[in-house]
Design goal:
- The protein is α/β, with parallel strands linked by helices.
- The protein is built from eight helices and seven strands, in the order E-H-E-H-H-H-E-H-H-E-H-E-E-E-H.
- It is globular and about 45 Å long.
């Protein structure tokens, strides 16, 4: 049986990149065919968590090829049947809001739209400081939208950042497996 092809996209939650990369490596080791995509912010911004070029290079190493960084590159993914599933890890509140509103003005949101129009699953691994604030409505909207699946998540710092939510990135693989079967991995809320 052919290995599922996963488009893996990274958005600008820079503090989680070091947590996400080992999980992407695990997917590659499990035999999944990976292709990379980055939001413009993730692809172009140097931060205290690393230079943009470093993270672009790491994603290209893990996925084995050039990454998608433009709307034009992302648009044909669905119509040309180039991926079986999209993983957005990390997915920021900004990207979450754009997905919930149907805004496709960047490579990640366009890629999601492209795959969704063919009925393919999109897996979201949240990392947002306002998950229990402004982003809560968008989480609810996408939980109730067909073909969106969430990696189980939790409050990552309930005392200092009570509205902040972060996916349990170690749950990427089981969430992807469940999404490919058309089901949401449970429990959705972790401790």
């Amino acid at each position: 049986m052919k290995s599922p092809r996963i488009l893996t996209a990274m958005c600008g939650s820079f503090c989680t990149f070091a947590q996400v990369m080992p999980q992407l490596e695990r997917l590659a080791q499990e035999g999944y065919a990976l292709r990379g995509c980055m939001s413009r912010i993730a692809a172009d911004t140097d931060t205290r968590f690393g230079a943009a070029q470093h993270w672009r290079n790491r994603l290209e190493e893990v996925t084995g090829g050039p990454i998608i960084t433009t709307v034009v590159q992302a648009e044909p993914l669905g119509p040309k049947n180039m991926a079986d599933l999209m993983l957005i890890a990390p997915c920021t509140g900004n990207t979450l809001a754009r997905l919930a509103a149907g805004i496709t003005d960047g490579p990640v949101t366009m890629a999601a739209k492209s795959l969704l129009r063919g009925g393919r699953p999109v897996v979201i691994a949240l990392s947002t400081n306002d998950g229990l604030g402004a982003s809560a409505a968008n989480i609810g909207r996408l939980l109730n939208t067909r073909n969106y699946y969430f990696v189980p998540f939790r409050q990552d710092d309930p005392i200092a950042k009570p509205n902040s939510l972060q996916a349990d990135f170690t749950q990427l693989l089981p969430t992807i497996q469940a999404a490919l079967e058309g089901r949401q991995l449970q429990p959705l809320l972790c401790r």
